[in-house]
TrEMBL record:
Highest taxon of source: Bacteria
Protein source organism: Candidatus Nealsonbacteria bacterium CG_4_9_14_0_8_um_filter_36_17
InterPro entries in alphabetical order: ConA-like_dom_sf, Ig-like_fold, LamG-like
Boundaries of every LamG-like jellyroll fold domain copy: 411-530
This protein's name: LamG-like jellyroll fold domain-containing protein
Keyword Signal: yes
Membrane-crossing residue ranges in chain numbering: none
Signal as UniProt keyword: yes
Keywords: Disulfide bond, Signal
Length: 778
């Protein structure tokens, strides 16, 4: 388990328990002690137990980082603190930076607890795991005390830690957000790809480790917070340096620079629209000046990049594709100009040369890969009709001389270009080295590498075509417009530098290209199918960030539990008051592009037809998706039913439908002993003798009576006693002898709309009195 300095930790109760850490120190005072204390309640040695202490007159120093593993079994089950301690408090004066008679410092990092009593971890990257330093005589502390360490200052020491240099870390001589990046490793980011500036070229949103082996490079890259849509991180331009997203507010301009997130780059989690600003600004911290000014000192490249604009150029993220793609344009001032968020997104690792051919009016083409393989144009003319921006036009005796750079003599390679040949019936070189490989169009109009079999597709003249050939030391693979076009076996190429040309055989003056060539790139590796497809589709800024899509409300009805109802264009049902009740369900068919689970609220409302929307009454609400079944409290009438749904990002939708609720069929009857005087049947209980005849009637003139459903007529009456029918002739009046002690009388009615109901009354009887007989006394 990790153990943080200055925080309470509970030592686990294990058979063996060791505290591991790394430490380095220097002490210049006999009486001073520096080291590690466990069980401390303060930041010095006044409490707790020394695990390690050092002192000495200049000789008390380590030669570098030393790994420790100390048995701390004595503290099993206890909650303790760990502290890095400089015992000589006189050295804590921040203005004191002498290596004289006083002083000492200790630095410790990478604390954790385990059962291993041996060395198990590599030397730490300082500050990664809660490193801490004590003692004002350290070179780092002196830098701080002399106010040399300031954010972005090149004077920041080469070895530092969190919270001492502008709230960050000192990494390779400059301040950086903690922790310092790991050498040769980029942290993952959820935005990647390239944006194109008409003035400064490509801007990378990916984290690309371009530092030499063994040299720390900053971890840059851009992220989008999935909950808020806020951007963070840095993009990189070879020409203007860092572009910072999500800049903090500057109090200097408090009147026109509101707090975050007004000027922060962010994306709407519902619409995909990107708003706010990115920061590439050193000359001014005022976005208003930067956005409108024309003075480079107060704007220009060292200023703000506006991401939001009218529909025809404002940046937005298209989530109809996966991964999502950025669209349209952003605007900055003067030097940067327009930024195009489109066009090839591939891993730039192994990029040996990249000629965008957008110089437009110069005699050279420049390599933006960093290898500086500049090409000298011989005869080829510039045209603005390139695939992306400008291109070079070759008329049969032109070429570009690239010299003999070692960076282009690679064993494995990828050759990529956009070409628009005016002829495909001959031998026309696209790009090649004298010592091979050479890529050209052969006499059959197909791609071919010299000394390798040709591709399959005959190219079309006067059409822009994306052509790629890869070689991995075993096979050569051709691609046309992102689609594989043939594979042949072939060994690796020579790594001896030789003459390189575009548009003409590098071994002579033949095979001159006819047509346009643009966007030539060379790699020292074989690109993958996915990368080639992405290159063909155009370099794009892309993201794995998922923009919320609003729900889509939809309803339907199910009247299968209510015979006679309708669920077509007209929704018609009956009151839910019969026996059995009408079951009429309005179904929630809502969907969400992000998945139905993204809908977290459904609300059902009902109002009378013609009433204002304020009259909607909530009938049912639930978390998620639920249906609504009409209840007995809904009276007959014309209604509007409304469904409202809401998702996890509070995006919502609603829909309505008209609904007619008809009056339901209702059975009812009364009883009589003489077929004249009618009363509630239960009033006869225990007043009727067993076997006596009783009359029943459901006439409308009586208090309890039967009615058909709205618009219908009663077509059937069935009278039953204790479950046995005694009259099925649709008679409104009937009678039966009550033969049992308890008699349940049921009337079931059915109407012409196939609606039915029943009513029951229970009548108890008494045994008849014995028959009186006169007995003669004689």
């Amino acid at each position: 388990m990790r153990a943080r300095l200055g925080q309470n930790i509970t030592v686990p109760d294990m058979a063996s328990v060791y505290l591991h850490y790394w430490i380095k120190w220097w002490v210049n005072t006999w009486g001073n002690h520096v080291g590690i204390v466990i069980g401390a309640t303060t930041t010095d040695a006044s409490s707790g137990t020394w695990l390690e202490a050092h002192s000495g007159n200049g000789s008390g120093s380590s030669s570098g980082w030393v790994e420790r593993w100390v048995d701390i079994s004595a503290w099993k089950g206890q909650t303790v603190k760990l502290e890095v301690v400089d015992q000589d408090d006189t050295d804590d004066d921040p203005t004191y930076c002498s290596y004289g008679d006083h002083g000492g410092w200790v630095r410790a990092d990478d604390f954790y607890i385990s059962s291993a009593g041996s060395a198990v971890s590599p030397e730490p990257t300082w500050g990664t795991w809660g490193g801490e330093e004590k003692g004002q005589a350290s070179p780092f502390a002196c830098k701080k005390a002399d106010n040399i360490c300031s954010c972005g200052s090149p004077s920041c020491p080469t070895d530092g830690f969190c919270e001492e240099c502008c709230g960050g870390c000192c990494c390779s001589g400059s301040c950086h957000t903690c922790p310092c990046p790991v050498v040769g490793v980029c942290n993952p980011h959820n935005v990647w790809g390239w944006a194109w500036s008409e003035n400064i070229g490509w801007i990378s949103f990916s984290c690309e480790d371009t530092m030499p082996v063994g040299v720390e490079g900053p971890d840059y890259g851009v992220d989008i917070d999935r909950a808020t849509g806020l951007f963070s991180g840095y993009a990189w331009s070879e020409n203007i340096g860092w572009i910072r997203f999500n800049p903090p507010p500057d109090p200097t301009y408090s009147n026109n620079y509101p707090a975050i997130p007004y000027y922060s780059a962010r994306v709407s989690t519902t619409t995909g629209e990107v708003s706010g600003w990115a920061r590439a600004c050193a000359g001014t911290a005022n976005p208003d000046i930067c956005a409108t000014g024309t003075n480079p000192a107060a704007g220009g490249w060292d200023g703000w990049i506006k991401l939001r604009g009218p529909n025809y150029y404002g940046v937005w993220i298209d989530t109809s594709v996966s991964p999502a793609e950025f669209r349209n344009w952003a605007w900055s001032d003067m030097v940067v100009g327009w930024l195009r968020f489109a066009g090839p997104v591939i891993n730039a690792n192994g990029l040996a040369a990249s000629w965008a051919m957008d110089e437009g009016n110069e005699g050279y083409i420049y390599d933006s890969s960093g290898n500086n393989s500049t090409g000298t144009i011989s005869g080829a003319a510039w045209t603005t009709s390139g695939k992306y921006g400008s291109a070079l036009s070759f008329d049969g005796n032109d070429y570009v001389n690239l010299g003999s750079p070692a960076s282009l003599a690679v064993a494995n390679t990828t050759i990529e270009a956009w070409i628009k040949p005016s002829s495909v019936s001959g031998y026309y070189l696209i790009y090649g080295l004298k010592n091979l490989p050479k890529l050209y169009i052969n006499s059959s109009g197909k791609l071919e590498l010299y000394n390798a079999a040709a591709a399959n597709t005959v190219l079309t003249p006067n059409v822009w075509t994306h052509v790629v050939v890869t070689s991995d030391g075993t096979n050569v693979r051709y691609y046309v417009n992102g689609v594989p076009d043939g594979t042949v076996a072939h060994a690796a190429w020579s790594t001896t530098p030789s003459q390189v040309k575009i548009g003409q055989d590098p071994a002579g003056t033949t095979q001159n290209f006819l047509g346009l060539i643009d966007e030539v790139r060379i790699y020292s590796r074989a690109l993958t199918q996915e990368e080639i497809t992405a290159a063909y589709n155009g370099y794009k800024v892309m993201t794995s960030f998922s923009i919320n899509q609003p729900p889509q409300a939809a309803i339907s009805c199910d009247g299968s539990g209510c015979p006679g109802s309708q669920c077509n264009a007209n929704w018609v049902t009956y009151q839910a008051i019969a026996n059995p009740p009408c079951i009429y369900t309005i179904k929630n068919d809502s969907t969400d592009p992000d998945g139905q689970a993204d809908i977290i609220k459904s609300e059902w409302y009902l109002k009378k037809q013609g009433d204002p929307d304020t009259a909607y009454a909530l009938k049912l609400n639930c978390g998620g998706v639920c249906n609504y079944t009409l209840q007995s409290d809904v009276e007959a009438g014309d209604y509007v039913v409304k469904l409202y749904v809401e998702d996890t990002k509070v995006a919502s939708a609603s829909t309505t439908h008209s609904l007619t609720v008809k009056g339901e069929a209702s059975a009812g009857f009364v009883c009589s002993l003489d077929n004249i005087n009618w009363q509630v049947c239960e009033n006869l209980s225990n007043k009727v003798s067993q076997g006596e005849l009783v009359y029943f009637k459901d006439d409308l003139s009586l208090d309890e009576h039967s009615v058909a459903s709205e618009g219908a007529a009663i077509t059937s009456r069935i009278w039953a006693r204790n479950g046995i029918n005694f009259d099925s002739a649709n008679n409104s009046t009937s009678s039966v002898n009550l033969a049992d002690t308890t008699n349940t009388i049921r009337l079931t009615i059915t109407d012409s709309a196939v609606r039915s109901d029943y009513q029951e009354h229970i009548i108890s009887t008494t045994l008849p009195l014995p028959e009186w007989k006169e007995i003669s006394p004689f």
